[in-house]
Amino acid sequence: MVFKRINQIRTWYEEQNETMNFGQRLADNVANGMGSWKFIIIQTLIVAVWMIFNFIALVKHWDPYPFILLNLLFSTQAAYSAPIIMMSQNRQNERDRAQALSGYQTDLATKKGMEELTARLHEIALNDKLDKILALLEKWESENHPVATELP
């Protein structure tokens, strides 16, 4: 049963991935990429190189201090990345809701099974008690009211 449940979870996850369209996959990949140390380090290196080359440029500074072009690039990046990341987060919320519903349904099935098991155990215990009572009654009757073995 445990393996069946694991397969159901894996199948549920695979179904979620199969229903994603190109835009949703792109949003997830962009959000995953931008939310990583690799992205932060690469972006930091690019900014450092940009500033160093603009400071030491001998002939022409393509973006002189205060780096207006660099600020424009960052603004453009933020303008596009924020909605893409929000799309990915919204989809994650949908996945979380679907997973919570699946977990709730599993919990209900488990509760029902436990209730049935408890009822069966109670039935077995009750039957066992009844058998003991009947045995005691038979013993009491045989001690107090012996059956006549002789016929007249």
- Count of extended strands: 0
The sequence of SSEs as H and E is HHHH
**Mean residue pLDDT:** 82
Helix fraction by DSSP (H/I, runs of at least 4): over 70%
> Which stretches of 5+ consecutive residues score pLDDT under 50?
none
Distance between the termini: 67 Å
Q: Round the Cα radius of gyration to an integer and report it.
A: 37 Å
* Biggest pleated sheet: none
Provide the structure class.
mainly alpha
From the spread of the alpha carbons, the general shape counts as rod-shaped
With helices defined by DSSP (H or I, 4 residues minimum), what is the helix count? 4
Task: Write a compact overview of the structure shown.
Helix content is 84%, strand content 0%. It has 152 residues and is an all-alpha fold.
Walk me through the structure.
The protein is mainly alpha-helical and 152 residues long. It has a domain at 21-108. It is 84% helix and 0% strand. The chain is built from 4 helices and no strands. Helix 2 packs across helix 4 (68-144). The radius of gyration is 37 Å and the shape is rod-shaped. The two termini are 67 Å apart. The model has no long low-confidence stretch (mean pLDDT 82).
